[in-house]
Amino acid sequence: MKGKGVGVLLVLVGLGLGATVLRDGVPLGAAQQAAPAASAPLDEPGARLQNEQNTIDVVSRFEPGLVFISTEEVVPQDPFAMMFGGGQEEVQRGVGSGFFVNDAGDILTNYHVVAGEGSGGQQPKITVRVMGQEASVPAQVVGLAPQYDLALIRAPGLKKDLIRPIPLGDSASLKVGQKAIAMGAPFGLDFSVTEGIVSSTARQIPIGFGGNGGQGITQKAIQTDAAINPGNSGGPLLDSGGRVIGINTQIYSPAGQGGGVGQSAGVGFAIPIDTARNLLPRLQAAQGGTVNAPDIGIRGGLAVQTRQGPLPVGLSVLSSAGKRQLGLPDQGLVVGQVVPGTPAARAGLRAGTERQQFRGGVILLGGDVVTRADGEPVDALEDLQAALIDKKEGETVTLTVVRGEATREVRLTLDASSFTVRTGQ
Q: What positions does the domain PDZ occupy (predicted)?
């Protein structure tokens, strides 16, 4: 992504990129260049701070649970390269991080670390390497969750004594200001450690990947100033007790600096470990397939036409006069379809049946409009999905629904149909 114009463009950058080492020449000031006055060396063990010792203890105990991940896949070559004698395909390599979550050797990482980009949707070749080992071991996908930007992989050939699970913490009890220790492979520099604090416990950002490569779902993320960079993706964020509190996933970075590669600006984001823990049983049961975010069974009934085709949108895109004329609320998700056998169908939600076209789009009228989910405003499918993202089977969601001039609350219970697993790619 390239920035245009003057100034610095800040963007959210995924961290699973190839290794790049940056070296900055830092000039020394006159005071720094002057030789320091002779003094007796400090007693280092005695001068060591309690916080410093804690970091050393956490790293020495739990860093062996960190996993360095490499991927390799064949991708179509740029057609312009072929004009100058290049081949039709090239090998693309990537690096990322992960960590053991159990004695069986399951490795949690980001989806974008192991997702393929080649033709035919083929999974890239994945290898992993643990601390103290020179050889890499082939790994395979256990389950993928693109909407959460999470994946579970396993290396069957890895020796059991090399599997060192890192305990999972409790992200719901985090407090701003707590210590945060990030482990991973920034720019391919494997088994690196940085330290900072938890800067925010509930920063709302798009995480993961929607359908057809679309934008991820808005979710709560942990913000930290512990330095994380490309290659840190999928690595653990630990607290002072050595428990995993998050999975490093994105940075807020100046774009286009240093050759266009996103770099740490002291604002990094991690997926809360509670989200990953809730998802773990489904990933383990996916048999190499894709785990979807919860779905109550409704589809949008308002769409605008784009170059890529119809795009579902919320009522906020329509003019106030147009909404008044159609008898619609100021904002909300128009229900265009209710899938049979789903929680929405059992709750009696109604899809629109009167199709009206307008310049640049189409709307289905006569059905329900969802305006809130668990009290939070809804104006698009992404807003509804954000309210469902952390829910499990058997839990409920309360929708505020407008039908004509009546407004009511509808309580839906998520069941097995809300958590369909797609096998294969």
A: 305-405
Buried b / exposed e over 323-334, threshold 16 CB at 10 Å, is beeeebeebbbb
By C-alpha distance, which of 250, 235, 246 is closest to 183?
235
- Do 156 and 175 fall within a single domain? no
119 is annotated as an active-site residue: no
The pLDDT of residue 244 is: 97
Does this model's pTM top 0.90? My answer is: no
Query: In percent, how much of the chain has pLDDT > 70?
Result: 78
Active-site residue, 233 included:
yes
| pLDDT per position as a tens digit, 292-308 | 888 899 999 999 888 76
Active-site pick, 70, 97, 106, 149: 149
Q: Annotate 229-256 with b (16+ C-beta within 10 A) or e (fewer).
A: bbbbbbbbbbbeebbbbbbbbbbbbbbb
* DSSP-derived 3-state class of residue 388: helix
Domain that holds residue 125: 63-162
What one-character DSSP code corresponds to residue 247? E
- Chain centroid to CA 125: 21
Q: Catalytic pick from 97, 199, 233, 264? A: 233
Phi-psi region at 366: left, alpha or beta (left = phi > 0; alpha = psi -120 to 50): left
Give the span between the Cα atoms of 312 and 300, in whole angstroms. Answer: 6
Inside any domain, residue 357: yes
Give the gyration radius of the chain's Cα atoms: 25
| Cα angle for residues 421, 423, 425 (degrees, 5° grid) | 120
Structure tokens at 394: 């058997």
Q: Which of 241, 372, 276 is nearest to 315 (CA)?
A: 372
H/E stretch holding 31 reads: helix 30-33
Answer yes or no: 97 catalytic. Answer: no
CA distance 249 to 149: 8
pLDDT digits (tens, 9 = 90+) for 252-280: 766 544 333 455 567 899 999 999 998 99
Domain total for the chain?
A: 3
What stretch of H or E contains 179?
strand 179-184
Strand 309-312 with 302-306, pairing: antiparallel
State the catalytic residue, choosing from 70, 97, 106, 112. 112
How many residues does this entry show for the chain?
425
Same domain, 207 and 346: no
